[in-house]
Amino acid sequence: MRRAPGRQSDQDGNVSEAMQTRGTGPEIRSVESADASGMARLHLRGLPSPLSPRAGSHLLEMYYSCLEPANGGVAFVVREGGQVTGFVAGIWNRRKVLVASLLRYPLRFPFWMIIEFGFCRGRGLFRRDGSRGDEGARGEEGEPVSGYELRPLVVDETQRGRGIGPALSRRLLDDARERGFHAVHLRVDKDNAAAIRCYEKLGFRTVGAAGRWRSMSVALDRPSSMPK
């Protein structure tokens, strides 16, 4: 899944690998196939999910292994001590990611039906409160927002407070800008005050709400590294 350093971005979404966060901060790199299982485990530990640990681990590993630019998505990870300690994913074509997943794992089609009506359409076909999961961020009128979506950002609980989350977010914003997108959207639990503060520092503003979720968006008209 890795590409050679120094390549420039093009209309097909091939972007240089050269942008790594170095120095005193965490080192961030593009996801590799070997990272998918660690991402799945971290996802299940750090985010609410209707999936059982065993099924969820397999389904999410397949999903994250297909996040490639040619499939309409990317992911960046921080890996320390042989473990994935944080990652962020960006998706601009959820349907294409799903189709790529089905083609790559044709014998697991029944499982991917769960992904189709579960993970890719919110946190489950029906949430615990009985409401139907939506497809992602929504605007002021409640309509789905299209474009580049941050989905999701997860940092190991023991590693929080080290700047990993903001660094991963800025890396994703840079990727979206390189690909020609003018905004990045996300959805966050309205009760997750720490995450909301982090996103607001990066320039995100609330654009809508639905149930327990707040939709936020940031315009990419300035370097993402400006707000610290």
Task: Give the SSE map.
Layout: E1 29-30, H1 36-46, H2 53-65, E2 73-80, E3 83-91, H3 94-104, H4 109-117, E4 148-155, H5 164-178, E5 183-189, H6 193-201, E6 205-210, E7 213-219
Parallel strand pairs: 4-5
Antiparallel strand pairs: 1-2, 2-3, 3-4, 5-7, 6-7
Q: Would you kindly provide a written description of the structure presented here, covering whatever features stand out?
A:
By secondary structure, the chain is α+β, with helices and mostly antiparallel strands. The protein has one domain (29-219): Gcn5-related N-acetyltransferase (GNAT) (Aminopeptidase). The chain contains 6 helices and 7 strands, in the order E-H-H-E-E-H-H-E-H-E-H-E-E. The protein has helices at residues 36-46, 53-65, 94-104, 109-117, 164-178, 193-201, and strands at 29-30, 73-80, 83-91, 148-155, 183-189, 205-210, 213-219. The chain has a 7-stranded mixed sheet. Helix 5 links the parallel strand 4 and strand 5 (183-189). Helix 2 crosses helix 4. The longest helix has 15 residues, at 164-178. It starts with 28 loop residues before the first strand and ends in a 9-residue tail after the last strand. Mean pLDDT is 76; it is low at 1-23 and 120-145.
